[in-house]
Amino acid sequence: MRHRKKNQKLSKSVSQRKALIRSLVRSLFISERIKTITRRAKSLSSSAERLISFGKQGGIHSKRIAYSFLQDHLLVKKLFEDIAPRFNKTDGGYTRIIHLGKRKGDDAELSIIELTKLSEKKSRIKEGEKTSPKAVNIDNSGNEPKKEQKDSRSGLRKSLRKIFKKSKE
Questions:
Q1: What CATH number does the domain located at 14-168 have?
Q2: pLDDT value of residue 22
């Protein structure tokens, strides 16, 4: 019987499952929003929320526990100085799972898992302040986005259509 067994097996051995959850939590804290399979997102949610709770507590012991899980000093620093202070006034519910539907290839349920309070830069993008990702280049240096030039191949496409249209008639 599976009484009080809260983790899902995810068709992996214990060590592979731990490594998977660790890498997903790390990428969630780095980018604050990731796209994954729904079952993985649900298992990831509990680990991420537990680490954010440690970040809210502060203290050296909490930092050591977070480091033993994340294995990255810069990420622990980001967790304690950037992510956890956003959730000081909330008790739980630090992540949100948005279901996207099924993947075309293997019919797996996809979802986006994100932190409920995104950073200011991420929330501006979410609100629609910027245009679609095709029309905007975002620098990693934090500079102003540059608009891309119109695709130069559109004229070529039009002329090819005319050629093939004539040959069919």
A1: 3.90.1030.10
A2: 96
